[in-house]
Amino acid sequence: MRTTGVGPTLADVRLAADRITGLVDRTPVLALDSRVLVKAEHRQRGGSFKIRGAANAMLARYADEVVAGSSGNHGIAVAMLGAALGIRVTIVMAAGASDGKARTIRALGASVVQVTGGVVERDRRAADIAAATGAVFVPSSDDELVVAGAGTVGLEVLEQVPGVTTIFVPTGGGGLLAGVCLAASALSQRVRVVGVEPMSARRYAVSVAQGAPIELPPSMTIADGLRGQRPGAVPWPIIRHRVDDLIGVTDEAITHALGVLRRAGVSAEPSGAVALAGALRRGSAGRAVVIVSGGNGTAGSSTKKTEEPPAELLPASTGESACSSLRCLDGAEESRSRRIAADAIRGAAL
């Protein structure tokens, strides 16, 4: 966990949007039907939204070595950035994590350490390795810079879909949901933000009901990217204060939503189909956007993009770049690092 005690704000999300420009794609919004739209983060560099938070954290912090705990997609993002920036990377993965994603991480030059337990043990081991080696720990969600980077998904949705009434967000560690909650505060009119969790891993719903963070046993849901056990210290207060609803969906519902997406030409992974599973269960009055958070399957094919219907894009958000937390790159270093990483990641995505 990286926190100043204040927590990220909408301003931090806007700063993140500026910092990661050139490193991430502005993903399209695709029409699933006349009322449901898909924010296609499975077409993002690295195959998921995770590169947004990882890039924001790694550009803002000076490091020769980085350690992260990941179910796979965050690890792929950190490994891609590490290869581009010349940073040594170690990724710790929990029991049951995708072998294909682990292979992709290794192919990108990172080391992989696997633990026998769940997400809590994974993140504890990653933090211990970072402390022992002096590496910078980049959490997959429980970090102010990571949350702010993830929030840029929400900023893009609000710009691309004027009049959106509800955003359905897949929820694991909570970084994406917290970031979208922050982004939603940019509008004067209320946009409903709905978090969708696997039924066997409803750590946020249970914690909100109890009024305090609750740790759950490890889950083996097919949505392997959403097996978090306990709300993060950074996302928790944001989500508790701002989220409008939290929905649980079964593995059967996730499988059904995955089929709907794939028949429509959207190559999501199970975790990426969770938001649609929630939308199909709950429904929404008005215009709804579901975030397809990733498309890295068991083969770990993280850098290839599929052909899908085009979407009209609006100009990217901009903001004044600024550093925060730990030692930061100065403006010249940050710009140079961004250019180097963008060129390398663009090459890997071809």
From TrEMBL:
Which BP terms does GO give this entry?
D-serine biosynthetic process
Tell me which residues make up the Tryptophan synthase beta chain-like PALP domain.
23-294
Q: According to the lineage, what is the superkingdom?
A: Bacteria
- Which UniProt keywords are given for this protein, alphabetically ordered? Magnesium, Pyridoxal phosphate
Keyword Magnesium tagged: yes
What segment(s) does the record annotate as region Disordered? 294-321
- Keyword Magnesium assigned to the entry: answer is yes
State the needed cofactors, names only: Mg(2+); pyridoxal 5'-phosphate; Ca(2+); Mn(2+)
List the residue ranges forming a coiled coil, or say none.
Answer: none
* UniProt-recorded name of the protein: Tryptophan synthase beta chain-like PALP domain-containing protein
Organismal lineage: Bacteria, Bacillati, Actinomycetota, Actinomycetes, Micromonosporales
